[in-house]
Write a structure and sequence with these properties.
222 residues; mainly alpha; 10 helices; 79% helix; 0% strand; globular
Length: 222
């Protein structure tokens, strides 16, 4: 993404898409490992479910932001773009997230764990199949065009608005903020961290919240 640093809208969308893409991929691998080997210990079990819970929250909040803010804004600029198709895709993925959340809740309660892990695996695979073409369509139809349509000042305003909306509709923050930061490689993480309040990145995440998200560490980037 370094060659797109001036493209504020594009970079912000690509960054969260990278986070979610890795989140889905890691979740699929972790679910297969849980099916084949079980969980090493209670902490590993907790980390697995926390990671899935954070993924679900971040993906839902991202799509909600698009439905409520990004798509209406870009419809005015690109009335022929397939936003109705993208919204229907979101609706289908909401159902998948509901299935994931139900499977996680059942596993946490030790209710037919193997059955629900298999359901989880199947749903994550369907989510992955939908996610990749979905974000490609978004990029082709409006994200890649933003720089030609919107001034840098307006892009900055939108990026801030989108970020605030996402923060308001995701949580708990002690899981979702580390999830976003540590599903990015160090260089990208540092760029994103600079846009966050220092209290969050220098105190809350590494100190106050550390015990609450540390179980996810095996699934996160160093």
């Amino acid at each position: 993404m370094s060659n797109q640093e001036g493209r504020l809208i594009a970079v912000s969308f690509l960054r969260i898409h990278d986070v979610i893409t890795r989140g889905v991929s890691v979740s699929m691998e972790a679910t297969q490992a849980a099916l084949q080997q079980g969980f090493e210990d209670e902490k590993g079990r907790e980390g697995f479910f926390n990671y899935l819970r954070a993924l679900s929250s971040i993906l839902h909040s991202h799509h909600l932001m698009e439905d409520e803010l990004a798509f209406p804004y870009f419809r005015e600029l690109l009335p022929q773009a397939p936003f109705d198709v993208l919204v229907r895709w979101h609706e289908e993925m909401v159902e998948m997230l509901d299935e994931i959340n139900r499977a996680v809740a059942a596993c946490e309660q030790n209710d037919q764990v193997e059955v629900n892990l298999r359901r989880l695996s199947d749903t994550l695979a369907r989510l992955d199949d939908s996610w990749q073409p979905h974000i490609q369509m978004e990029f082709d139809e409006f994200i890649a065009l933003a720089d030609d349509l919107i001034s840098e000042e307006e892009q900055l305003r939108l990026v801030r608005q989108f970020a605030e909306h996402g923060q308001q509709h995701s949580g708990p923050p002690y899981l979702t903020i580390p999830f976003v930061l540590y599903n990015l490689p160090p260089e990208e993480r540092a760029v994103l961290a600079r846009a966050m309040p220092a209290e969050v990145t220098q105190h809350l995440v590494p100190v106050v919240w550390k015990e609450q998200w540390a179980s996810m560490a095996p699934y996160l980037l160093p």
